[in-house]
Amino acid sequence: MSSSSPTKRILSGVQPTGQLHLGNYLGAVRNWVAEQHHYESFFCVVDLHALTVPQEPAELRQATRRTAALYLASGIDPQVAVVFVQSHVPAHTELTWLFNCLVPTNWLERMIQFKEKATKLGSEVSVGLFDYPILQAADILLYQPHLVPVGEDQRQHLELTRDIARRFNDRFGETLRVPEADIRKEGARVMSLQDGTAKMSKSDPSDLSRINLLDSPDRLREKIKKAKSDPIMGLRFDPERPEATNLLTVYQLLSGLERDAVEKRFAEVGFGKFKPELAELLIEYLRPIRDRYDAIVGETGYLDGILRDGAERASAVASATLGLVREKLGLLPPF
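Structure for Tryptophan--tRNA ligase, as requested:
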C-alpha cells in the first residue's frame, strides 16, 4: 500500500447540488467534525458527480463554493483536514478510465440507484450516470482510506469499490487498500418534514421538506410550523406516527437529551406547543454555522486559498496512488 501512516485515513464527500440540509449535517458532516482529529481526513466536494444529470453552469459553480464554505462553517478545520474540490484533482478522472477497462459491465447493471434514477430520467439518462459508481470508486481508492463513512443507501456502492480493489490486487498484486464501511445509525436518516417515511433530500421539489443549514430564522419557523403532523395529543416515538417520530428525533439530536427524556418532556402536549420550541432550538443550533459561513464568504480570497491548498495536498496523495496503478498496468511513465 502507498500509505504507511499509523493514523487511519478517512474520506468522504457530498455533491454540490442544492443546499446542505440538516440530514446531511446530522448524518455526516457533524461526525466528520468530531472525528477529524482522530483520522487523517479528506473531505471532497464531488462536483463531477453532479454532472451526471443536467446542471446550470453558474449555479453549479456557486453551489460548489457554498458547499465547501459550509464544510468549514460546520467546523472542518483546513489546517487539520484536507478540503478540496473533486475536479481540481485530475487523477480522479484518469483512474476512472483505468477502472473502466477493468470492471465488467454487469457489475454496474446491478446497481440499484442507477435503475431508480434512470427510470426518472428516461431518455435523458447519460453514460456518466451509469458509470458514476466507477468514478466513486476512484474517488475513494485514490486516497487509500481505511474507512469510508456511508449511509445505508451507499452500502452497495462501497461494496463495488471493495470489489474493484480486490480485483485489481488479484490481477496485479497488492496495490489498493480495501476500505471498510463506517455506517452510522443515529441521525443517519433524518426524514422529510412533509413525509415522515421519506428521507430528507436535496432533490425533493418542495423546499418545505427540508431544513437547509442556511435557512433564515423566519424561514425555519415557517418550515417547522408547516411540517406534517397528526391530531393525536401527546408526542412519542412511534413507528405508526412517522412525522412525530421524525420531529422528536430532530429535537433529540439537537438537544443532546436522551430519547426517554425527550418523550417524557412532550408526552402531554400537542404539536402546537412542541413546534415553536423545536423551531427555536433549530434557530439557535444553526446560528453559529450561519455566522461562520457569512464570515468565510465575506473574506476575499480566503475560500479560494483553502481550496487551492486542499487540491495540492490531495493531489500529492492521489498522484502517488495513480502512479502505482499506471505502473502495474504497464503504462509508460510521463517524461
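Strands lie at 9-14, 40-45, 82-85, 147-150, 180-183.
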